[in-house]
Predict the structure.
Amino acid sequence: MSVKAEIKVVLVLIALVGAGTIVCAQTPKSAQEKPGQQDRPRKPEPDSGVIAIETSEVLLPVTVRDSAGQFVTDLKAEDFTIFEDGTQQPITSFALKRMPVHVVLLIDTSSSVTRELEDFKEAAWRFISRLDADDKVCLIRFDDVVELVQDWTVSRNALKRALNRLQTGMFTKFNEALYLAAHEQLGKVKGRKAIIVLTDGIDSNRGSVSQERAFRTLVEEEAPVYVVSKTRIQGRADREELAYYQKSPSLNQLRIDGLKLALAQLETSERQLTRIAEETGGRIFLPESFDNLDDAYQQVADELRSQYVIFYTPTNSTRDGSYRAVRVKVKQPGYHATTRFGYYQK
């Protein structure tokens, strides 16, 4: 890059910071840089209601459902058993839902959602409105770039304005968006946290972060991911188009091949999104139409309000950076507990 080009980049960055808009990642280099002090969430005040966590403690957000899939919210600490690498762990603290949560709202604004962007904004706004007043939210969009549109705030008006500013781009830097959401936004957060992402999960391979690196960072930062997936919606549209073109295959073979490839990509993406959600302790939602988006977001909000928060101090006190597998059991028959599959000891 020439000197004039470097000066131009610096001036643009200064202007962005001065305007209060932070661009998280536009070049491969940015995905490896640590965020500046201005990007980091402030430490909570003593009276903020955020529970302080000792570094040796492990926090587990746990969701319990009965055999009908309904949330169970009347259990006590003695109803749970925690295992780490197969060894039972002593529970040191226990609470239900009242611990505030930091939520990263991650929205795909690539060209594939141009026609539905307004619907996405409305569904996201209704989700924000259902959160508790002291839950902090930040908003990140991703397409050709990954941009922090709104940093941590409890102001619903600020979030509404941020949603209204969303516009679409071209490509999809999905892996980079997950990495930056976990590493830069949630990496310094203590307590409950979650990422809510609306996407088809297909990365354009134009970023600097691989799928596995993004996934590992989510696990390292203990960030549950709730995925509202567009794979079923897009798949139905592609299958309808494929059936139309197959009526005259000799004239439309190129388009037919493209649609078959797209459907295969969607299937692969759905499997990967399911893995991300389940192993981080989140959940995947697969609406069949855009009319079902609001219901998916409603279920996420309900789950965040219905979670138990369990702390335990590992009996294995060695801090070697190893992966520890975690399992939660509920004593009552017919009840099923979900949490993340494990964590990396820091």
User: Anything to note?
Assistant: Helices lie at 3-18, 117-130, 156-164, 174-185, 211-220, 231-245, 249-280, 293-305. The radius of gyration is 21 Å. Residues 2-54 have pLDDT under 50 and may be disordered.
